[in-house]
Amino acid sequence: MSLSASVVVPSYNSARFLGPTLESALAQSCDDFEVLVVDDGSTDDSCEVARRYDRVRLLEQSHLGSSAARNLAVREARSPVIAFLDSDDLWHRDHLETLLRLMRQDPDVIGATSGMELLTADGTPTGQRWVFGGEDLLLASRKGCPFLTSVTAVRRDAMLLEPFDESLSTANDWELWLRLLLRGRFALAGRATAGYRRHGGAISMDGPTRARNRRRIVAKHAGQPWAHELAAYMELHDVREAFAAGRTRDAEEGLARAARHYPDLTADLQWWPFFESFRPHDHPEASSRSRFWQAVGAYARVCGSRALPFRGDQRRRSIASGLEAAAHYAHIARLRPEALGFRVLARLARAGLRRRPAPPSGSGTGLSER
Asked: So what's the pLDDT on residue 331?
């Protein structure tokens, strides 16, 4: 079965990055695709950049946001598959071919996704990658955004049924995946096929806006049986930002609220401070030693928090797993002394633990129904 794709590129004041992004799309190893750029009311030369490329179809709208831009492109698309590409990211040459092949091989999937390598603002690889393996994406989507937009392709008929929420200026991709994963599966490439450029202008770095949008997502899905779990992990995003700002009391209160929503989240807290305090796709300075030790401090506060309902040996196990997470993130940040030290500490901590008990059966209707 042959599949063609419409490549959707929303653009707002992206003239600085848009040219290389479009060139990476037009250089794909397969031929059966179109490229749609939706200019979202830019005040720079973004439209002029898009018009330089004959194969690019330019759509224009007033400044309504990236969700509205993507939805417009989906409606105007001529192909059965929509492949998303942010205006500051870069595709590897075989990216589109890889995702379309996965969707041809398994016609039952509604989409396909891959991993991303992290780049500097000028496109230089940092050596860090974000690649998904065999995770249960449906469960993962209730804890955080399970994959990024620029490495995802979705069947157009599914996108017409489940468009982006135009009321969300951030986290709109996360909220979309929550809905689409209830409709069907995504195939995983298991490797990085695109590059994410880190720079300070990304809207994802606007903390207060992100917090407001997270609350809107929780309210939108409040009727779902797993809403308590989603609410707990949304609280953890605020906890991470409170720790990063030094607001320890706010963080403690957020941990207590998260635990009330979903007591079993203690099983994940060992790695969460690192994932959220040290995630390199949001922070240009993520590989710095100071950022790493800030994450270590957040992890120590979480594992030592009396606001959380740790049971039996759980706190010690969380400490051991947190040390392993520290070693992992130190390794990807190329902090060799820290990586070695935390690896040794993690082994010592694991050696002192009893045999791990069976996982809890869960509490609340969300877990029992899954």
From this structure: 81
